[in-house]
Amino acid sequence: MAEQPKQAKIATFGVRFESYDDFLVEYTDNLRRGFLMLPSVRNLAVEQVVRIKLSLPNRAILYLSGSVSDPGADGGKGTLIKLVNFTAEQDKILSLCVNSVLIDAAPAAVEAAPNKPINVLLVDDSPSVRSELSTALRARGINVSTADNGLLAMSAALKQEPDLILTDVEMPEMDGWTLLRMARARKKLAHIPIVFLTALSDDMSRLQGYRMGVDDYLPKTLPADEIIARIQGVLARRAGNPNPAVESRGLRGDLHHVRLGSVLSFLEAEKKTGDLRLDNGDDHAVLRIVNGILRDVKNLGDRVQHPHERVFELLSWSSGQFEFFTLPPGSESEGGQIEPTSVTYLLMEHARREDEAAEANRRRS
Fold it and tell me: Which residue ranges form the domains of the chain, and what is each CATH number?
């Protein structure tokens, strides 16, 4: 908040940012372009010289000077100051404060208001993608705001929270991965679903995105109607489990993007303990994993079969949802209804069976 000027020939102000969020909004709105808003100050003349003591949220102090550019900015709420060019040291101090935005407390869940239009923040550095996709979404009743990189998207989301962020991955200044990390680390934005507009090339890259908290992946070539359907699906899933914190919700994603074998390999390599829940709409199962080892299979399907046979059946799924819930301390010994079985063994045996089936089909054809 800006203090009233002291009595002096040159108007002098103190401006203090109490939080990193306030700073980020002002930085993306004004500071990066060499301007600064003095809120609640409306008694200055155009081109009047001012001096400013700027207190940043990381306790750094900048002494700036400039002149009045717009005494009735932001609908008369304050005065816009055109600053003298930043020195190299001042630029460095501002950049360090922008980087500090990454540090925040744990996220908190926020309930979405029911029966309201969907508000999507579309982030892409391509003007043609932003224009074409936002036009298509608006024509189908979606409210769309846009940003051309992750930094501007963070500022826009802090000023007005969207229901969902739809973002490209490869962008200048701040890419989609950094935007995802920053949003998931902040109280105000952690609950917002984030969908990547990309088709990452391999299972482990997509799994890494799910570990960091991405909600879905959509190729840019997807028709607008299907994009909306997928967005609605993400919002519906999030409404059923609003807490997005990766540690509390475990790991979840789509088997269309990450095969079950890759998920199991990750759980084995990391020696994870918990329940892996699988659901394809028509069938479901739960695999109990203890220190990366299979210990139980719940719901053996329509026919009674050996748990290993059920796992081989699940490994053949090409679509569905997976979600891994870490077990609380002390519950690792629960379950254990089958002999401990190596995931690597199951994956190798499944691959062997698939190879044999493919060879048999080749001989018949």
Answer: 11-102 (2.40.10.220), 116-246 (3.40.50.2300), 250-365 (no CATH)
